[in-house]
Amino acid sequence: TTGLGASWAVDWMQRAQAVVSANRVDLIDLDRAIGDGDHGENMDRGFTAVSGKLATLAPQTPAEVLKTVATTLMSTVGGAAGPLYGTAFLRASKAADGELDGAGVAAALEAAVEGIQARGKAEPGEKTMVDAWLPAARAARAAASDGAAPAAVLRAAADAAASGAQATEPMVATKGRASYLGQRSAGHRDPGAQSSALLLAAAAEAAEA
Ligand code: ADP
Ligand code: MG
Ligand code: MG
């Protein structure tokens, strides 16, 4: 089994741009229900910028790609999600050493969620993107410990993120803009958890391609 290299990371970001763009209206609708309605716009702008930036570079490692993603998202996404995703990708880039095997994928996802929590101080159950990333990182670590190949590790992470995003629906938000709604935030999926699940699905698809 070969590790995931720069071409995987670039393919991930092309797929991320496509899936975010295709789900732009859905993410806007989710954020309109419990926030200010800009999450789809913010993410589409950010990943379009990432895709454009990567097209001008010839990155040699996943770490180089992830660092470019981090700086581009930080300067283009804005709102709460920009710094959170920026920190996630920056930490993942620092954790990514050369080509990624299964354990390397798990380490990068763990670093990403540590960054999100360091930045946003959200614990699981507060109806944020942490509710997608934390189960994803845990599932990735479990799969890697079982000796799974990187694509299978990412598939486990993506599936856990999808379940995690769905599980935010009944939650009452206690962090971020949705927390202003209190109990009225229940009954809607968190937009950042949903976009996180889309991004991790794109990562798995790129690894399976
Ligand atoms: P804004 O709320 O500033 O308009 P976005 O709409 O782009 O920003 O992003 C909102 C998403 O950010 C939420 O759905 C949630 O997943 C995430 N988020 C907000 N605050 C936090 C936090 N403290 N920790 C983790 N994620 C958060
Ligand atoms: Mg918003
Ligand atoms: Mg906003």
UniProtKB/TrEMBL annotation:
Record keyword Kinase present: yes
Keyword Transferase recorded: yes
Enzyme Commission identifier(s): 2.7.1.121
Keywords assigned: Kinase, Transferase
Pfam families according to UniProt: Dak2
Highest taxon listed in the record's lineage: Bacteria
Name of the gene this protein is made from: dhaL
Protein name, per record: Dihydroxyacetone kinase subunit DhaL
Enzyme class at the top of the EC tree: transferase
InterPro entries attached to this UniProt entry: DhaK_L_YcgS, DhaL_dom, DhaL_dom_sf, Dihydroxyacetone_Kinase
